[in-house]
Amino acid sequence: MAAKASTLPVSIFLFFLLLASGGIFEAVNAQRTWCIPKPSSDQPTLLANIDFACSHVDCSIFQKSGPCFHPDNLMNHASIAMNLYYQAMGRNWWNCDFNKSGLIVFSDPSNTRHQSTRTLNVLLSYKH
Q: Which cellular components does GO assign to this protein (predicted)?
């Protein structure tokens, strides 16, 4: 029993060392993550997010001639713009804040039955 009690302070020390070094945040960022708007986001918020993101990254992928134009709706276009920004800036939680309207997800939002395979392939291979 004494051996287990003596390992507790070491475990606590290692946990705080990992926390202080940013290791926990790096572990989260190592997973595949995407940034999308919260479903409750209103139209002005989505437009502001698109404007902000597209002022920093190339958003031509969802313009009329782009491969990700369809489905042609604000939520889809905001999702793409916000995720392009999030990926380009390093996939940090603060790069998906968008005034508290962003949401980090762990499943690929382009993997829906509404997206074409071509659009999915372009999204997965698109590099800024």
A: plasma membrane; plasmodesma; side of membrane
| Whether 26 contacts 53, CB under 8 Å | no
Cα angle 26, 58, 117 (rounded to 5 degrees) comes to: 80
DSSP bridge pairs for 35 = 104
CA distance 48 to 67: 22
SS3 101: coil
Classify residue 95 by its DSSP letter: G
User: Residue-wise pLDDT tens for the chain (128 aa)?
Assistant: 555 556 666 556 555 555 555 544 444 445 789 999 999 999 999 999 999 999 999 999 999 988 999 989 999 999 999 999 999 999 999 999 999 999 999 988 887 544 443 444 444 444 43
DSSP-based three-state secondary structure for 79: helix
Q: What's the rounded Cα separation, in Å, for the pair 71 and 77? A: 8
- For the question of whether the overall pTM of this predicted structure is more than 0.85, the answer is no
